[in-house]
Amino acid sequence: MEFTHFDQAGNALMVDVGGKKETLREAAAEGFIYMSPDCFEKIRDGNMKKGDVLGVARIAGIMGAKRTSELIPLCHVVPLTKVSLDLELVPEKNSVHVVCRAGTVGRTGVEMEALTGVNIALLTIYDMCKAVDRAMEIGPVRLLEKSGGKTGTWIREQS
Predict the structure, then answer these.
(1) 122 with 136: CB under 8 angstroms?
(2) For the segment 80-95, what is each residue's pLDDT rounded down to a tens digit?
């Protein structure tokens, strides 16, 4: 397999996407944060001192997806046409499941934007809840699917 972010001398570079076709490109990623029952109950009941944990995490995830190129070296600035975050409480696991969907019409995909959105939302939950539970665990974070571009559609197989 050939790595595209290095030149022949091994120097890092930003891939030239100028010759690629503009297509509709979408991606979805997911992640989880696991916590103590007490922390979960405070989020569920809206009793966290810092406020609406899930609402703030949703906005943070959207903002993070929009700033991906500022956070990840060599990522292109992508004109996002949509970003959405779904946060679901999972009582049987004392966890929050986060899904970020991103889309654009462009020359490069939005996988990194979806993954960044998930991670920023999860880190925001951790930040807002750490006074109650410093032992929270984040993961796994993974790409669920992507579509568009030369490689077409990819969907993660269910395990």
Answers:
(1) no
(2) 999 999 999 999 999 9
